[in-house]
Design a protein that fits this description.
N-terminal domain of TfIIb, 2 helices
Length: about 80
């Protein structure tokens, strides 16, 4: 009997999250592509040594982008 954990869809999802985790992201502070994952949701720029809190597998998440947009709109009002 086959289990869902061995399905192709789950393997593809695991591969994309693993690739997102391993890629270098652009630093919001210095602009260089040197931000790497240091731990669960902890990201650090190797160039300017800035530390960021982000998503578990990517620096910016959809929820974080929405929250940033909302805070900017509240600040301007």
């Amino acid at each position: 009997m086959r289990s869902a954990k061995f399905g192709a869809r789950l393997r593809k999802l695991a591969e994309t999250s693993d690739n997102n985790r391993k890629t270098k992201y652009e630093c919001p502070r210095c602009g260089k592509r040197k931000v790497a994952r240091k731990g669960y949701a902890i990201w650090k720029c190797k160039s300017c040594d800035s530390v960021y809190a982000g998503g578990a597998y990517s620096l910016k998440t959809e929820t974080g982008e929405i929250a940033l947009r909302l805070t900017r709109s509240y600040e301007s009002a």
